[in-house]
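User: Okay, second chain of the day. Same drill as before: sequence in, structure tokens out.
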Amino acid sequence: MGDQATTDLTYVSTSAYHAGEKSGDHVFSHSRTVEYTGSGAPTAKPVGSERSPLLGDSSVVKEKSSGKLARKLTLLNAIGLTVGSIIGSGIFITPNQVLEETGSVGVSFFVWIGCGILAVGGALCFVELGTSIPSAGATYAYILRAFGGLPAFLYIWTAAFVIRPASRAIISLAFAEYITRPFYDSVNSTNSSQNASLELPSSAPIDDFDPELMPAPTWLIKLIAAICVCILCAVNTYSVKLMARVQDISMVVKLLAIVLLIITGLVYIGQGNDHNIKNFFEGTNVTAARLGSAFYGGLWAYDGWDTVFFGAEEVDNVARIFPRAIGLGMSIVIVAYILANIAYMSLLSADGILNTSVIAVDAVRPVLKSAGALYIMPLLVAVSTFGAANGGT
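Assistant: Same drill. Structure tokens below.
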């Protein structure tokens, strides 16, 4: 028999991961045992394999490879990722759909709570899967492990070509709606006597204002949405760090928008304006089909709770962090959504909610009476929706 030698090769590469976080070192160890035959030419085969009929009895190969991502995501990172991925455009564009399908503010309020419970249930299932299968890829990894390559491929193909592009298009349209609103509000306040209701006293109902007085043209909305998608593609292609900065800024801004909305609603109620929520269940019209459609709209706003599981291999301790991140993150989102809906329902009548495409802007009108102040909310929501589209690009 020939002499036996072992060679160990280590390849180290560095690459930026997870939205501009610190670069992670990827170490791939490659060990190989090689036996030299009598002719002096080394031969090799995988570790533990039987004798090869092609290479001969003297061929022995032992090969082992492994790769790991740097585990640098902490509990705070995971909570921020959960909250930032969920709060985006949904809470600013779907409340009118939920109300339209239920018919009353009371039932729509409980639908939002029910959607939160369902989202928590799904997230807890992923906690179990994520701690049992701590692989990057989340849904893809779980389907691959449970059902094999074909179902996993079909899922990832559908997500890449249908689900993700469609959701990004909807969010980009919401961005266009809000970013154009301040300019058309300024036109309305200058050219229309109907907009004198901008100076309504805080106790006046919002019904006197027509939120669709002069909407932005459809072609302009679609053009801005398309530009938004192109910009996001360019940003994500050019630099992961730049994409991360955009996400960090939008995270702060979206929380400011939610807080501003909640404070506005509480101030309005504190002034004794509870006329919009006195008849809580008036107009209720619920069927199984309508209720399902209402839940569909509410669950859209909770979409994104699975994002943190895509980075399972970068989380410091999945068994400890995943349950806590989902528990705390989902609690923050549910409380924020409930308070935001209370603000909507108190600031706007049922008709006011149904007749607007920019609910967050029209909701703050009774308190933010100055036309200058009305620039704040649409710009905050526009940045929030831009960040939501950026997060899934």
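The mean pLDDT is 75.

User: Thanks, on to the next one.
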